[in-house]
Amino acid sequence: MKKSIWLLIIVLTFSLALPAQRIDVYKRPLKYERSHDYDAKHYRIKLSFDLDKKVFNGENRITLSPLKDGFNECRLDAEEIVVTSVLDNYDGPLEFKQTGRFLIISFYAGNRSF
Predict the structure, then answer these.
(1) Tens digit of pLDDT for each residue in 24-43?
(2) Which pTM value belongs to this model?
(3) DSSP-derived pairing of the beta strands 38-50 and 55-66
(4) Which end of the chain is less congested by CB atoms within 10 angstroms, N or C?
């Protein structure tokens, strides 16, 4: 029993002396946070699933606050989803465009949302 304890102590002592992995933090790829013109305050997501057809439908209500004057366009990540309508907080339709990666929502001058 004493031999086992001494052997364990010796193994642990030598394992502590092994050099640790060295990570050069300056060679890591830089990641930048994208700048935003708005602050997303709240997301409300409602989903329904049709398992037979392997599709889902949903609604996403976003409460946001503009961070700059003249905020007239909002760009959201929307890759691999199809957006059928965009409404303001009074259920009025908003103009939008969907590209390959983004949903771009345009706010008109008379928008009552803000």
Answers:
(1) 777 778 777 777 889 989 99
(2) 0.62
(3) antiparallel
(4) N
